[in-house]
Amino acid sequence: MRTILEAFDHVNLVALGERHWSRQHSEFRKALIRDPAFARKVNDIVIEFGNPLHQAILDRYVVGEDVPAADLRKVWQDTTQPGAWDSPVYEDFLVAVRVENTTLPRDGQLRVLAGDYPIDWSAITGPADLPDLDARDRSAAAIVQHEVLDRGRKALVLFGSAHVYRNRPGSVVDLLKDRADAKCFVVAPVSEATIEPGLVEVDKSSVGDLEASEVLEKGCKRIKVVDGKPVLVDGKPVFIPVFESGVRVRDLTDALLSFGGERDESVEPPASLYAGTEYGREVERRRRILISLMTPQK
């Protein structure tokens, strides 16, 4: 954690990759923002699990204003990824920022920026109405540029690892590389127990020379198309390699975050959120639209 805080002394962006729904990752980032040094060095936190259309709600909530729970939930429920952020760890993080802000002067409070694509599901009835969802990282990069870099601020960027790898075409970090003032320190989680617990800077360790495919988190798709139909394999995510042979750890990240062999817990959304509820039906509607977009047309 100290490495991340010290990185802000010479960069203005720290991109912290996360394993979605992970309790370990959740506890780590909450401990990070609670460190007294964090708010002295950082102004903003850019999150993947927020729709920019609800930025005003998010702004009011994190500074301590009264916000109805139904309005607050729109921040993470109305994103391009239906149901993806319903794990309690994401609301818990916003609560942690709100609590931390009560200890800070008004002009030194942390701002949280919703970094997903600004999708309006009320205007979407079928796949033809969907925006270009490949623009998610471009949208996040634009928010970082306008709200952070253009204002001379510093930010912690919290996204799934694939969105922040250095030298990955189209990632948030890669899209910012041509700005001289976009100095970024990338921290990526490692897969399972491949590295000793802790935070390891790759330029100070031989792990930087390891094959990325042996160490870093792999991408995943919960759905794939088989015989022209979308299916969920074994009811679990389908993990696929995203690193070609010869791509080294140091090509993609500046530091590795490992929890060693400690068993990680995936914090699932409560089943009651979906069972027989209007929200559950809406999530299924949105997912059907997204799946139909993936299904080859005859």
Q: Strands across the major sheet, in which order?
A: 3-2-4-1-5-11-6
User: Structural class, please?
Assistant: alpha/beta
Q: Please give the domain count.
A: 1
Rg, rounded, reads 19 Å
In DSSP terms, counting alpha (H) and pi (I) runs of 4 or more, how many helices?
Answer: 11
The CATH class: Alpha Beta
Residue-averaged pLDDT: 89
Series of H and E elements: HEHHEHHHEHEHEEHEEEEHEH
What is the strand tally?
Answer: 11
Characterize the largest beta sheet: strand count, sense, and whether it forms a barrel.
7 strands, mixed
Please tell me what the overall shape is. Answer: globular
**Helix content range of the residues, please?**
25-40%
Termini distance? 52 Å
Poorly predicted regions: 220-224, 230-241
Descriptors:
298 residues; alpha/beta; Rossmann fold; seven-stranded mixed β-sheet; 11 helices; 15% strand
Describe the structure.
With 298 residues, the protein is of the alpha/beta class. It has one domain: Rossmann fold (3-Layer(aba) Sandwich), CATH 3.40.50. It is built from 11 helices and 11 strands. The strands form 3 sheets. A 7-stranded mixed sheet has the order 3-2-4-1-5-11-6. Helix 2 runs parallel beside helix 6. The longest helix has 17 residues. About 6% of the residues have low confidence.
